[in-house]
Write a structure and sequence with these properties.
Layout: H1 11-14, H2 20-27, E1 33-38, H3 44-61, E2 66-72, H4 82-92, E3 99-102, E4 107-110, E5 118-124, E6 140-146, H5 155-165, E7 178-183, H6 192-196, E8 204-209, H7 221-233, H8 235-241, H9 259-262, E9 263-265, E10 277-285, E11 293-301, E12 306-314, H10 326-343, E13 352-356, H11 361-370, E14 374-377, H12 383-395, E15 400-404, E16 407-408, E17 426-428, H13 432-437, H14 455-465
Parallel strand pairs: 1-7, 1-8, 2-5, 2-6, 6-7, 9-15, 10-13, 12-15, 13-14
Antiparallel strand pairs: 3-4, 4-5, 10-11, 11-12, 16-17
């Protein structure tokens, strides 16, 4: 079926001014990932819907058979939000005659050529694994949109979906990927998405917008009235809901930790030419059948620095994991330590101590019986004093750095015969020490860290105590 009618819409009048540069960047393929965050009614979702429709139509003119996948955490929320936003974009562009809406499966079909139709498909992510088999007979998924990204439980859920969907089709022209994540940030600093916003990536831009940037006459008067009422009633609530700001930062355990000062990407790190590692202290926090077991490896250098190597984090609740016997856990930890000592050519360091959680005598015995590394107990623990020690380490300028290799699955650490070509499986973008340090809060009643997601911090505290 060939559609003859043509339409002409001035795109410069359609795209909101706050998003024009993003529109240009997408056209110029400047980035792959576009994180659009902000307050209520800032236009980020409308803009994304417009880009999906425009992108697919322009790709067709260039001979690219592209498709789009628009996602929300739950399928029941699709109909009243994402689907209507894309339909609105089609209406605004005056191209209804070129698109057909289908209820089952939920999708919009671009019609100009029935031999190679293009789709905008809508799905819920209640079970991320159900998207693993998604495919299109012709073309490939170029555009992926996560709407209300803050609703997702963790970063690894989104990563799993991306790994399944970001695949080219060798039979059709490939033109890169465009991934949108739109979100109204949660007020808590320790929300996983707010933590991700701390990091810079060359292939990603983070854009912030508010309702105040939307030209007058587009939004309802009632919205401005609601914003003013909220502003007077609860200013923090106004900042979060309407300005998209993260306001719940009070009570952070380690506010002095700065990713720009304390974190170095593994691809950029190297010891100084005259720097030597004099000793290595390894902290080990032992988990249970539901908690993670961790290693934090601290290198004490002749330059007066603490350089922390990538951390071991085995979570029995992760996909493909299960509770392990102490003997197997120790073998995994030994392989992890062996690999990074090899990677940074630290095999000549003789003074290597492993400080193990006092409550895990079985693990300490396994270390001493089964490996070449000597383990000792951390001894008596003082929660507040241990926190203060780590705070001091973070506070001293140029004293502590941690190498970020991402959250690597310990099960994929190679054996010695394959060291040169490791095949790591990534479970997250960041080492768990970074994630935990940026999120751990203090209990206002006890002035102690809130017990929970702090297994890597505990391992690091054990090592710091032994310095």
């Amino acid at each position: 079926m060939k559609v003859q009618r043509k339409t002409k819409v001035d795109i410069s009048n359609l795209i909101l001014p706050a998003f024009w540069q993003i529109h240009v960047d997408i056209a110029n393929k400047k980035y792959t990932y576009y994180d659009l965050k902000g307050g209520r009614a800032s236009g980020k979702s409308y803009f994304t819907a417009e880009e999906l429709v425009l992108g697919i139509m322009r790709d067709r003119e260039r001979g690219i058979i592209s498709h789009a996948l628009a996602l929300r955490m739950t399928a029941t929320s699709l109909e009243g939000s994402v689907i209507e936003q894309v339909q609105r974009a089609i209406d605004k562009l005056d191209v209804n005659h070129l698109w057909k809406r289908q209820r089952v499966p939920k999708r919009l079909i671009y019609l100009p050529n029935s031999d190679t139709p293009q789709y905008i498909r809508f799905d819920g992510c209640d079970d991320p694994t159900k998207l693993k088999s998604i495919t299109f007979a012709k073309g490939y998924i170029k555009y992926i949109w996560f709407e209300e990204t803050q609703e997702f439980k963790k970063a690894s859920d989104i990563q799993s979906i991306l790994l399944s969907c970001m695949r080219s089709n060798q039979d059709y022209k490939f033109d890169g990927f465009v991934v949108f994540r739109t979100a109204n940030p949660k007020p808590e600093l320790n929300h996983w998405l707010n933590i991700e916003y701390h990091y810079q990536r060359k292939d990603r831009v983070i854009h912030h917008s508010t309702y105040l940037q939307v030209p007058k006459g587009i939004l309802r008067d009632e919205l401005y009235e609601e914003a003013e009422i909220t502003k007077k009633r609860n200013f923090k609530e106004y900042q979060n809901i309407f300005l998209g700001e993260v306001v719940g930062t009070d009570g952070l355990c380690y506010p002095m930790f700065d990713v720009n000062k304390h974190v170095i990407d593994i691809k950029k790190f190297a010891f100084y030419p005259i720097e030597r590692v004099s000793r290595i202290i390894v902290g080990c926090d032992v988990g249970t059948i539901i908690d993670a077991t961790t290693l934090s490896i601290l290198c004490i250098t002749t330059m007066g620095r603490i350089v922390r190597l990538p951390g071991y984090y085995y979570d029995p609740a992760n996909w493909g994991h299960s509770p392990l016997a102490p003997t197997i856990q120790v073998k995994l930890m030994e392989a992890w330590l062996d690999y990074w000592l090899w990677y940074y050519k630290l095999g000549a360091v003789l003074d290597i101590r492993i400080i193990v959680d006092s409550a895990s005598q079985d693990m300490m015995l396994e270390f001493n019986n089964s490996t070449k590394y000597h383990a000792m107990s951390v001894g008596q623990k003082d929660v507040i004093l241990d926190m203060r020690r780590l705070q001091n380490v973070y506070t001293v300028p140029d004293y502590f750095i941690t190498i970020n290799a991402g959250y690597v699955d310990p099960l994929t650490i190679p054996s010695k015969k394959s060291y040169e070509h490791p095949n790591f499986r990534m479970l997250g973008d960041d080492d768990m020490l970074i994630v935990e340090t940026l999120s751990l809060m203090i209990d206002e009643k006890t002035n102690k860290p809130i017990d929970g997601n702090d297994h890597m911090i505990d391992a690091t505290k054990y090592a710091v105590k032994a310095i």
